[in-house]
Structures are given as C-alpha cells and as structure tokens.
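Duplicate of #3305? Posting structure anyway:
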C-alpha cells in the first residue's frame, strides 16, 4: 500500500535542467504542497525520447535502462512534461520486449509514472492552489500530454483556483505547435508554418500570457512570438500554480 506521504522521484527532464530550472523548483514546491516527500536523483539523465523518435533504439534502450535503475525504487515518478512522462509510461516496456528481466521492471515503472499536473489532481486529489497571478492567460495542450496521457481538464481545474487569473481559451488549444521534438529539425518549413498558425490563435485571444505543460512547446512558441514582436509572456503552468512568477522572468525575457 502506498504510504500517506509517498516518496516521489522528480524526473526533471533535459530541457528543464538546461533551459528552465525554475520549472523543476516549481514542480518540487507543488509536490511538497501535495504531501509528498520529493527526491531528485542526481544520476538521472535523458529519458531517451530523441533517440527513440530518430529510430536509434539501441541508444534509447541504454538510456531507458539507466532510468529504470535510478527510479524504480520510488513510490511514484513525476515529470513536469507530458512528452517525457509519456515516453516512460507508454514506450519503455516496448524497448525491452526481448528482455524479460527489464521488461517487468519497465512495466512497473511505467505504471507509477505521471505528468506533474495530472498527478497532483488525479493521484493526490489536489483541487486548488494558494497562488496569485494577475492577468489573462491562454493554455496550449501539448500533443503528448493530451493524446498519450489525457491531460486536459487537470491544469484548467487548478488554474481556476489561482487568484487574479482569467483563463481565455484559444480557437484550437489542441492544435500542435510544430515542435514535435526532432520534427522541427527534420521538417523546419512545416514546423514554422504550424507554429505560425498557433501564434495567430494565441494572439487572437487577447491573453497576455501563454501557458503549457511542456517546455519544448513553450520554447518553440516563445521563439516565434518573440520574432513576431509579440508582447505575450510565456510560462510553464507549474510556475503559475506554484506562485513563483515574481521570481523568474517569462521564457525568452530577462528579469528586470
């Protein structure tokens, strides 16, 4: 039986580690507010998704084996990213189809791996947060979080409890932003067209802030908005829910 105060391993993700550490600290704060004992394994590395999407199964499997070894001992594994959580929970077992020993371990790890906000709401029963954010926000549903993990209502539920925040839905919040991991590298022209369509929907809402749960999507959309001269601020949803927006500038901007 899972203890009342479960030990949760925070899978930080490569992009958060390298580009936006504040998301990791926000996730840790939220998990502690949800009554969890949070551990950040220092030996963690990539989940292997870039290699997996590129067809390099050998490298993906090697990285996945390291993740299994590092994280299996915890009650839960939580990532502030639908794509990384989806990789572990949906694709790890298949990487070990011919390895009975690791397949069982990968299946056990997959069963207790969750995206951050869905874990807070669906597993820990969180219904509100003690945070304040003055502004109008719109929310982008990342492909992996939405389609693989069913993350849709959970962030909106918690955002509804943020004092001062008004949520305004864009025309098609489920439309892909064009990042797609290695997709934007393989097909840059298509990716650019897709993110251009997305920024039109964002700006049309009149929102001053764009939120999402995957940093890859956020970096892509923030870059495009910046090149277009837009003043829309871009943030990971965890930063707003944790109430740390005064401590860190929006993505792509410098704190004054």
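Output from current build:
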């Amino acid at each position: 039986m899972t203890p009342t105060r479960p030990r949760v391993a925070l899978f930080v993700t490569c992009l958060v580690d390298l580009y936006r550490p504040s998301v990791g600290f926000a996730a840790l704060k939220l998990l502690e507010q949800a009554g969890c004992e949070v551990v950040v394994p220092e030996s963690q590395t990539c989940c292997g998704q870039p290699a997996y999407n590129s067809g390099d199964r050998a490298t993906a499997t090697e990285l996945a084996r390291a993740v299994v070894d590092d994280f299996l001992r915890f009650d839960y594994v939580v990532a502030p990213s639908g794509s990384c959580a989806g990789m572990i929970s949906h694709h790890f077992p298949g990487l070990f189809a011919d390895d009975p020993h690791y397949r069982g371990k990968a299946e056990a790890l997959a069963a207790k791996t969750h995206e951050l906000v869905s874990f807070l709401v669906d597993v820990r029963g969180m219904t509100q947060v003690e945070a304040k954010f003055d502004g109008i926000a719109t929310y982008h549903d990342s492909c992996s979080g939405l389609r693989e993990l069913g993350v849709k209502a959970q962030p909106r539920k918690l955002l509804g409890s943020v004092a001062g925040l008004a949520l305004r839905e864009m025309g098609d919040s489920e439309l892909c932003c064009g990042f797609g991991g290695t997709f934007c590298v393989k097909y840059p022209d298509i990716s650019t067209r897709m993110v251009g369509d997305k920024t039109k929907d964002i700006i049309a809402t009149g929102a001053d802030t764009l939120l999402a749960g995957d940093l890859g999507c956020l970096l892509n959309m923030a870059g495009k908005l910046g090149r277009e001269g837009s003043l829309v601020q871009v943030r990971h949803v965890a930063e707003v829910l944790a109430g740390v927006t005064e401590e860190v500038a929006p993505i792509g901007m410098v704190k004054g």
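Confirmed duplicate; merging threads. Strands lie at 7-10, 37-39, 76-79, 113-115, 132-139, 163-167, 209-212, 233-236. Residues 50 and 201 are 28 Å apart (CA to CA).
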